[in-house]
Specification:
Elements lengths: L1 E9 L11 H10 L4 E3 L2 H11 L22 E5 L9 H5 L7 E5 L5 H9 L3 E4 L7 H12 L3 E4 L3 H9 L5 E7 L20 E10 L2 E8 L7
Parallel strand pairs: 1-6, 1-7, 2-3, 2-6, 3-4, 4-5
Antiparallel strand pairs: 7-9, 8-9
Length: 222
């Protein structure tokens, strides 16, 4: 399985504090033709605030699985706390999403599980410990035939994946902006050195640059 970390950042590596070119961001994400987009619950909630001043009301159509293009990626969201209860319908019909899959845990409220079941969302119980993402990737391969997983998330989940040696590539859309002292650094939670090899460097106009790095994973020769 191929795992790609994809983010839009400022020149000084911040995720926040500047205006992201969302069209270019999702165009790059789509170019990978990933089976799965792994999205953090905080990132999903922040995205809803960005796109909606007020969330649309849930309708009867939102209670069934959408009939969407099977080539679109599934969005898999770890949300053991039920943060997205009452909000998932707005994500479900995003035009770049096939459907939503939720990863739950021991602390997940029963009301959230009922909410997911009643609305025909796939959900998977991942145990009573912090998520082991090697097991998550095995689940996605087994249940959904996933071959390419792309993260569209913040520094916490990306840090966990890099710390676990599970990332194959890092894709960065670099914007011509320096956030400075108020920056929110993407790699702030990476514990150890990560050796990279540049695979691609492409100018996208408006002084933006797309960089793709291969991650050197210890013990892997290819």
């Amino acid at each position: 399985m191929r795992v790609i970390v994809h983010n839009s950042v400022s020149l000084d590596g911040s995720l926040l504090g500047f205006e992201v070119d969302m069209t270019a961001h999702y165009r790059i994400a789509g170019s990978y033709k990933a089976d799965i987009h792994l999205v953090g619950s905080n990132t999903a909630a922040a995205g809803l605030k960005m796109f909606y001043k007020k969330l649309p009301r849930e309708t009867e159509k939102d209670l069934v699985k959408p009939k969407t293009n099977r080539k679109l990626p599934l969005w898999v969201i770890p949300d053991s706390g039920g943060k997205l209860k009452g909000k998932l319908h707005s994500l479900r019909h995003f035009d770049l999403c096939r459907d939503i899959v939720i990863l739950t845990g021991h602390s997940t409220p029963k009301g959230y599980l009922s909410y997911l079941t009643e609305r025909n969302y796939d959900w998977h119980y991942m145990g009573n410990r912090p998520l082991d993402y090697s097991h998550v990737l095995e689940l996605l391969a087994r249940e959904y035939g996933a071959k390419t997983v792309l993260t569209d998330t913040g520094k916490t989940l990306n840090g966990i994946l890099l710390n676990s040696g599970l990332v194959d590539e890092i894709s960065l859309l670099v914007h011509p902006f320096i956030v400075g002292r108020k920056r929110f650094p993407l790699f702030d939670e990476v514990k150890d050195d990560v050796e990279l090899t540049l695979k691609k460097s492409k100018s996208l106009g408006k002084s933006r640059l797309w960089l793709v790095y291969k991650v050197k994973i210890p013990g892997r020769t290819t």
